[in-house]
Design brief:
single chain, 155 residues, UraD-like
């Protein structure tokens, strides 16, 4: 028998800091994000945690964002994240990585394959500063999905 939604949040809030940090790093590989999320406990709800996560991601440096992306580079089956899964996107993803020097990150949630391909094409036209802002926004979306699942269970 699994934990109910409130038990997941209660459990997370009660974890020793090192264990909570390790669980958070499984959601997002940025140590700065995980440290701030850990020290922000206890959370009153998964919504509270998501709000805090978004605020933290908004303040991450490019170095912090690059550390978050490193986790996606190591895990190419990132579920709700990562490049569109198709042979037709592969050349554009390689071009993206050459151009920006990091893996392409996008939240797949609620987007069709064509929308993902169109977004990849549009992002290839970004300058570096605009692209880091887009990465930040996509990371916020991905963290939201992962945190809600971790703290409130699957929908």
């Amino acid at each position: 028998m699994g934990l109910d939604r409130s038990d997941l949040l209660t459990r997370f809030n009660a974890l020793p800091a090192a264990v909570a940090r390790a669980e958070l790093l499984s959601c997002c590989s940025s140590p700065a994000w995980a440290d701030r999320m850990t020290s922000g406990r206890p959370y009153s709800s998964s919504h509270d945690a998501v709000r805090q996560s978004s605020a933290i991601v908004a303040g991450l440096t490019v170095t912090d964002l690059a550390e978050a992306l490193a986790g996606y580079q190591a895990d190419e089956s990132a579920g709700s994240a990562g490049a569109p899964d198709s042979e037709e996107s592969a050349p554009a993803c390689l071009e993206y990585e050459r151009r920006f020097g990091h893996v392409y990150l996008v939240s797949r949630t609620g987007r069709s394959r064509q929308q993902l391909l169109d977004l990849l094409d549009a992002r290839l036209r970004n300058d570096a500063r605009a692209e880091w802002q887009t990465v930040r926004s996509e990371l916020q979306k991905i963290n939201e999905v992962r945190l809600r699942e971790m703290l409130a269970g699957p929908r």
